[in-house]
Here is the input.
Amino acid sequence: MKTVTIKNIYKENLVKNEEKKVRMNVCLSTDSKEDILWYEVDEKYGPYLCDDRCDGIVVSVFLTAMRFGFEVIKSSYPISEKLYYNLTYQVIPHFFDLDKKEGKNYPKIKLEAETTSEKYNGNAVVTGMSRGVDSFATLCEYKDFELEDYRITHFCYHNIGAHHGTDTLTGKSKYTSRELFEGQLQGTKEFCEKYGYELVVVDSNLYSFLNIFFGGIPFNRTHTYRNIGAALILQKLYKRYYYAAAYNLSEFRFAFETDCAAYEKWLIPYLNTENMEFYSANQEWSRQDKIERIINLEESYDHLHVCLVGIKNCGQCVKCKRTLMELDAMGNCVLDRYKNSFDLVDYKQNHRAEWFSEIYKYKINSGFFQDVFDCALKHNPALIPEPELEIQYNEGSKLTTTKKNVNIREHPSAKAKQVGFVQEGAEFDLIGKFEVWYKIRMEDGRTGYIFEGSAALTRNWGYIAVKK
Ligand SMILES: [Zn+2]
Here is the structure.
């Protein structure tokens, strides 16, 4: 049996840059190698590190181990009974089933460890604080939550691989992942100090450990396991953890080759133990809902950080671009609240017009920008340019409505502002067509868009197909 063994867990005291730390070392071995996975916290949280059970380690590594053909995770330290049950009977079988259907031969990994139901008495309610949109949206939701026992008491910040520094637009960061972790952490520390939040930092070598011990596996397939694993390391301190959700249940998708966030609404409750409960936060909020909330959260103004590649927001990477456009789309003055988080002069002078000019292209190619488009339509339609028409009709062409109660829209979208309302038989000068929308000229000279299913050409003087 191909086995990975959790052989030994022990704490050691360290001093780093004059700060006292406690590191929990976990010795893992296979029949051919042995290596140390470590988690490190400030001295004051040292007593809460769980060196007496293997929950956090198992959650952090089991999926990766399974992908690399391991059949057993063996531990000489006990595992929480509930977690053992959930992983063995509720989670792992679904991966096994998935693999079988895809004709893959990964083993149904087994956990071999004593189980325990012993209770700790952790009392903290925690969520991650990266200072991104999801973190601040979770703060909005749970800051003054109706049930006192469910209000956030602590923030955490984990070094588990999120600081990989790669971006599809700008490429690789000039910083190493350690520089990104430490640099971005500094901003989170300043934020927590300013607003009086308690911050628990967990540093770890998990990212390089998984890559070296098992082999490379894309971060987005395991980030939920890594974050929850790091939280379970401190289940003597925590009782409840909110995981900010990127996908809603309506977007559920279960596959290994996908961002694990797409199925985490199912997964997260199965990572509970007798001591700690995990929940998704921002359950039904869309990206736009989250933005609408955080723009009223003063705490986010000077501290929002979304960047993939910079210690400060770079203003260029895909996440900076999306967020700048979203904030801008929220309407006048909203963006200016974030003047200390982004270089707004650079954005307005060098990027705004160009990025919005491409919005029709983006919204087709990427759901990422559909939200920006919808948001701008609702709050700041002046940012939406006229689309490049696919068909231009010659002067004299006419369009007549064929339905009752037809809306004329400012932009080619059912979500766009209504600029006119007509009945069946209304005739307009026809200018062109974009996607499923006719562009027309109204009597007063203004232009608008009518859905193709609500009208028909009544006089066609020919057209030029501009693009297909
Ligand atoms: Zn950036």
